[in-house]
Task: structure prediction
Amino acid sequence: MISGKGITKTFKQRGSVLAGRTVQALRGVDFQIPKGGAASFIGESGCGKTTLGRIIAGLETYDTGEITIDGVSVTSPKDRLFRKVQMIHQDPYSALNPTRTIHQTLRAPLELRAKQTRRPKSWIDERAHEVLGLVGLDPASVIGRYPHQLSGGMRQRVVIARALTVDPEMLVADEATSMIDVSLRLGILALLKDLRERLGVSVLFITHDVATARYIGDDGELYVIYRGQVIERGSVDTIISDPVHPYTQSLLSAIPVLHGLEEPGPEPVVPTEALDAGHEDAGCLFARRCPFRTEECETGRPVLGLTEGVPQEHACFHPKSRDVVATHLGRV
Amino acid sequence: MAKQAPGVRIDGLTVVYKTPAGELPAVRDVSMELAAGTITGIVGESGSGKSTLAFSLLNAVQPPGRISAGSVEIDDLGNVVSFQGEQLRKARGAHIGYVFQAAQNSLNPLKTVGKQLLDLGRSHGVEDLRGLVREAKELLGRMGLDGARVLDSHQHELSGGMRQRVGIMLALVLNAHLVVLDEPTTALDMITQATILRIIREVHAERGLTTMIITHDIGVVAEVADRLAVMYGGRIVEQGPTREVLADPQHPYTRGLIRAIPRLTGDINQAQALPGRPPTLTTVPKEGCVFRERCSLRMDVCDTVDPEAIPHGDRIIACHAVKVKEHA
Result:
């Protein structure tokens, strides 16, 4: 179980023009990801979802709050416990060293691992073959190759195999499918789901594409993040079928409709303005762009919590379910 | 001269790239028509030849590539494949507008947008530069931006969505009526993407354009395009009206591609990845069907004979299995 409480992070901008300006990347975020569980962070770029993922993976410090891994508090990115969390980056083309074969790439962490656990040298190659098999690659044909000889989808599988060499408890996949060819994306999503089921690895999925969040498992939790605040949180299916926050609704409305296969949702929500993170408002962070804002929204800031009649947590003064998602016409 | 949306006829177009293994085709024997005033979407994965096809429309394929056969006939302009030098330079911009892939990064970081606009005007011999600026402001205003502010900005002061709109403005400001957009929404957020797609649709209708959109995302095409062409391994394997192709895809690749898209509703287990991987320039089979390695309907004939693109009503499909089904 990995959980966080009240995580905040502020970035100071550098350079001659923007010096001194600060950006609140995270404004007190809570999360819990159970062992073997799944969670997705969704939101626009700049909302803080990647920062939060990096903090969880121990690649970034945080200002205040507390992160615990199995009840033990971890603070410094140097903490060994963070090894249990491995990051899968967006770009499989730059995540692998081009001068190393796949064998060399996997060998380095395995040698360390063998030393730690006093395993014989022969274990290293055995394990290298094993992790490649786990990610659905043919070890014999892949292991001697260089990254440039593999397709994007295969490279991403190698990256996942490398993450598995240290027996992680959690994989943090940051937009892990967005640079992969469309016909192969689903394969990577299915792999992550499969690793959850077979190895009990928990998966944190960071994406701007809500539909992909469905594919990590129906017990997964969805966190909708807006300007550093979680504004809606609940099971993936609940939030997709009955979103109550207008921001979640506008994200869902923006997903292209496959006309001919799908009907658009009858109540699409479109933000009244484009994202302008420069303003620090006293009220709801989304109020400026919200088509349903009232005076209340401009003065007070709603906090994430449960209200009567709504199954998921949300941060909105006027939660109302709207029918925004395209429906499948039931062919193909 | 009042211009109007031109029709475009691409016939037997083949583009080859010089490699150590000889000249290999990135686009092979492609024929299609862009009817005047329509939006056509070209969908394909990386290496399918979709960007090369788009560059051919401007006769702008860069060495080591070259157009080795075929023609691109544009109304009121002629066959651009035969154009050279100054004639070609003038056609680009004035007749054909191009919004580059990653328009976010195709602006000059050292100059304001306004200065780049004036450069564009001068290089095309526009005499009324004030009029050009006025037109640019109008276009930017139409797309929901403050024109004066944007023209005064450097690229780093603009967001991704704003840069994309600047790219569209620069493609249209010389009054081009044929516009090619290469991956217009890649790297944009969902909400920004929806805004840009709406703008593309509206500007297309208001200015009377013929538009071609290149993308890997079927969703983008589904939102805006009247017609859809699916490319695989340098060939167009299926083309037809967007809604019909989506509702009832015929080619096994189109079917697989549509089935592989994660959707928000419907049975989650229906979505399936296509087995195998898309071919690259060097792994495209020399003979036979380009898709056969990943195809579930593969027959003996697929190994040796490249299927011809055959019209079936509004649809053009290049598949042996589809032909057999119809004759049976």
